[in-house]
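Pair request: fold both.
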Amino acid sequence: MSLRIKAVMILILLTAAYAVITLSVQRLCVSPEFEKLEQEHARKDLLRCVYALEDELAHLASAAADWGIWDDTYAFVSAPDARFIESNLTQTAFAELRVHMIHIYDAKAEFVTGGAWDWRSGQAMDPGDAFHLQMKKMLAARKGEQPLTGICSTDQAPLLLAVSPILNSHKQGPSRGWLAMGLYLDQKYLEALRRKVQAGFHLDRLDAPPLLQASLRSPSSRAEPDLLVENTSSALKRVSMLKPDLFGRSTFVLWAEVPRTITDVSEAALRMSLTGGLLAGIVVLLCLWIFLDQTVLRPLGDIRRHMTGMRQDGDLSRRLPTRRKDEVGLLSREYNAMLDRLGDSRHEALRQTYRLGMAEMASEVLHNVRNTFSPLKAGLFMLRERLAREGALAALPPESARPDHVRLGLGLRNAENKTAELYEQAQALEKDLDSLQRFNLGARSTESLALRVILADSFLFVPDPLRQMLELKADESLAAMPTVMANRVTLLEVFSNVLNNSAQAYGQAGQQSGIVEARAKLEMHGNHGMVHLILSDRGPGLPEPELARIFQRGYTSNKEKRLGLGLHWCSNAINEMGGRIWAESPGLGQGFAIHIHLRAG
């Protein structure tokens, strides 16, 4: 996996991790807080309604207490008087007190007098017989002189009821009865109460025992009752509480539905926050990616491509740009310095290996020299022996010998000695060169080589006088060829030998300069690919009969009659590497071409 792909995957994982962490924090930490805030808001809406009802009950309790400790009321219970009723239980009094009902009961819980009116419309609003019966039961069972407040059921509507004992003006007893005041919670009153508290609520009756015992507390305590908050839909939240009937017959449910505006706003805010965070994260990661790509990944990719290209064509002259001032620039400079040192070492190694190749060829030459000296030495020895047998030298004493015979014998001895000495020197030198050759051959190994680079290097080993008159033109096809499997030194020697021959051919033809063209193509031989290299010149060429002999040992077209070991050795070297070499020439004066097959790497 490339470094670029790893960087992309890391950035994607960072973006995903950021999104997951942000969403988790919002869902686990932020959203619950908004949910609590919304629940608190709903509770406060309903509590405002509860406190408004408590205020109404407080008003009723205060009014009932005032009437309960009034001396006229105290006297009326003991001795009922019509004038009390006519002057006090009027619609005007109901309107001033803002109550719907005033009832007076004696100490035995018997109804004495009272009425129920709607002071706004003047219509009677009798609570019904069931109410009277339940009031009688409740008051008869009540002990003590403590006031009582709560909600109860009537035939008209739910009733806020306040009951106070009837005492004298000094609040002393014994109690002579009970005074009850009530306020109907009809739709008109509830609508007015909703506008007052700025919250929508409802009061419903459940004809079942209460599930939650809760009652309206006194205004002074203001303790929060038990509330149930639930989501009725994605847009509404319902908060409710149970209110038991004072008579124990049924239960009232006070509830309100509150729009989930806080949740909606919070969800929108969280979505915007998440979207904005993701966009910001993407922008930051994109900038980080561009920064990494421009400062790290792209330069590293250039270095990788440079090294890959150098590995493929073996060209150590390539250099990385060193304009950058950061660590990448420092790495490029160090890399270029390493290539400079490697190039110097390579050229030195090539010069050494070229000398080894020359030593191998010299060994071949000295071998021929020794072979040449061997018959000469043997002939001289045989001639001296023949003269001795014939008595030309041995039979005649020195003082009587002919001067010409003496000179001939001495000359033969000197020639034989010199021949033996040269023979021994050539043999010793051949042994030394053979040892060097064996070391060279033992160190040979094949490697993957680029033809274009090897050909350029071999041109440097052509002697200066010949190289100055020769121009090497490498076709673009060389760069497109795969590498070849060969020994670097051997291939350098083969190519430099071919170039030497071309330069000498131009010189023998009287030309001051010449061109050698190099081109290549890829061919398949069985299951193996072979690179077909063609080195052609425009020199004097060779006739057809000569082409079959140029790779034979001892053949040469050199006018100086030097020993012909070059192409013979090249043929053997190419064959040892699994290749093939042959020559072509259309004829004299029409140029010459060397074809070389090398196994593709």
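--- second member of the pair ---
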Amino acid sequence: MELEISHYRPSTSLIFILLGTLVSIWIVRIYRYRASYHSVHGSLKAPPFSMWLGSMPATGDIYKNSPMNTHPMCTMTLLSRKHNLDGIYYLDTWPISDMRQLCVTDPEVAAQAVQKFNLPKYHIYPQMISHITGKTSMLLLHGSAWKRTRAPFNPGFSAAHLTTLIPMIVDDCLIFHSTLSSLAGTGELTQIEDPLTRLTIDIMGHVIMDHDLNSQISENELVNSFRAAVEHTPNAMLVNPILNWDPNRMFWHWYCSRKMNNYLKKVLQDRMKLRAEGTVELKRKPAIDLAIDEYGGEKVDEEFMQVAIDQMKTFLFAGHDTSKHDEVFGDIGSTAEKLKTDSKLLNELPYTTAVIKETLRLYTPASTARQGSPGLTLTYNGTTHPTANTMVWINNHTMHRSASLFPLSDSFLPARFLPPSHPSFHLSPQSSIPKDAYRAFEKGPRACIGQELAMLEMKIIMALTIREFDITACYEEWDRKLGREKPGEMLDGKRGMFGHRAFQEMKATAKPVDGMPVRVSLAGSHKV
């Protein structure tokens, strides 16, 4: 027995030696990687940095006084304010992230990255959203593949074409108006995000496919699968694929994708059949019809079929995000009829437009992450900064909340977006918006393809509802309903941000926390 034991001792020792060597090599690599941060960051202001943990302690410290479920772009705004950071700064959060981040909050540098150089999307995007959008989504493609995919769908989202679809959008919004009327009648506490999401999805169904999803009045297989896919999105705080691996999530991704693909394939096949029979309405073409026309008419193949399906899912994904004033029309019936017959009315709502833009400034829908490259540098205050092995993160939220760009940056002041000729412009805290500072829909070649539609939707929704309903946030009541401590309080920032109980949480995109619990009532001074 002693001979047998002694026989294995050299092997055991060798194993420990090998493990010790590997650990030593790993430690040296970490040290060198962390040490290189200082040469990359240079003279830029930086949050506190640890040679072993990088920027993680500094970012983690922010979460002591901010919600754990908030969107990362909001957390970075707090980080920037706390340490008075420059318009660009580097973060090193490996292994939570697989590479360094160059955070950009300066409009000029953002324009370099997105508009001038049009850097490709960050390589982790497919891991985060391809289960929702499909792998050939224009959100995920680059270069010539992206151009080929986006080009056929551009006509369907032009401002001129969208005006032909206004009657369909108005009809969907009238259903939403009925929903608000019912809620006002019952006075029940409700999460307003749900009916609003269903409204925008119904609108997208008509604009993209001329298809009645009817999700506002009934359950729909596509909508349910889509929303389940969103719920099973990986944690955006853990972009390292190893840390984000989850077998259960993988099953849900496969299941939801299969259900959505089958549904949309049937819709597309039915559409092709109607086109072949010549029974489609030519005056109001959905985006998919224009895309088919651009592609070559009725001669579509399986490749185009899958690309089209992925773009339809992409548009659903993008579309599901989206004070009283003097711009009134009349009662709901006459307002709806006016909008259907005179689309120019929507261009005559400067204050409504300003309210929408100011809301999107304060509650920015998204930021964008781009992939740096070895041969590309970005210039800030006359100094060039490398982007090799770096995620270039354009944080529009921090930009929009910057007091140097938007005075009184945490205040809701729509007048800043009014034309100087408007009688309320004197209420604006600034004479103009700095160039490239407002990026609610991003800028450059990859700016949101649906921004015209989003603005159109919001104007119509407001025109049909703002005079008739008061919608009041009820977070205190919601907290009490769920048995939470100190209902309505922000808990020293752990349950609220920027002075408000409402904040943006991360659910694939930025969403109002808790689905925005509200009560709806009739506007007493504007009852019809």
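Observation on the second member. The mean pLDDT is 88.
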